[in-house]
Write a structure and sequence with these properties.
It is built from nine helices and nine strands. It has about 260 residues and is α+β, with helices and mostly antiparallel strands. The strands form two sheets. Strands 6-5-4-9-8-7 form a six-stranded antiparallel sheet, with helices on both faces. A three-stranded antiparallel sheet has the order 1-3-2. The chain is globular.
Amino acid sequence: MTGKDPSNWYSERDIATTFVKGLHVLSAFHDEQARITLPEIVASTGFDRATTRRLVATLVDSGYVEKHGRQFALTSKVLTFAGSYLRGTSVGTAIQPVLNRYSKKLGRDISYARLADDAVVYVAQSHGRNSQVSFGFTIGSRLPLLHTALGRALLAAEDQNTANELIEGVEFTQFCSGTLMDRAAIQQEVITARDQGYALVSNEFENGISGLAVSVGRYGSRKGVVGFSAPTSEFRNKKSLLNDVSVLQECAQEIDRSGQ
């Protein structure tokens, strides 16, 4: 990220590379790897074993990582960063009530997400348990940018050049048999989502599951997206689909007016 934006107030020599490496170690822990060994951290980060060991030892000593036999895991202390972000952006007071209200109106659980590097990150979810299907995602969960409705809605909110750069830069993963593996086709899907005002992605992240999402704020505002997932069969009725889109757009507009 450094050096690419001429408005940056810092230069390359201001970057503390050891600190950056520590952040990479923290990023090695994710949904599918809550507990990992030192060799697994080495493989994930690409750092040599000695460097990785020092970084992990520092994080253990600081209380952000704990050791369980040969494995390591994050501690609850890392949540202090997320808590500061959520309080600072008034997610609980400004966004959560809106999601809860429109979730009841839709009869589905609604998520609010934002772009983080080349992934989608859940920032808030409705609390109503209105969905008949649970997908197991929580605040902080990361989803693929290219093959989810939330991701394509985020791409559609960017100018096309930026969207294309993101599409070209993300590593392809085939999640299921229906995953679209053609970058040009994904670019066209993003254009379609921008033109029609919503993103609908079916059977690309998980067979039998579709997602619907809309952007928050004006084009280019980068205020995030709202959306939900459900069995693909529930999206076949066009009238019902457009009604869901309308409700999501109302939800997005209210979040936008809240100043987020």
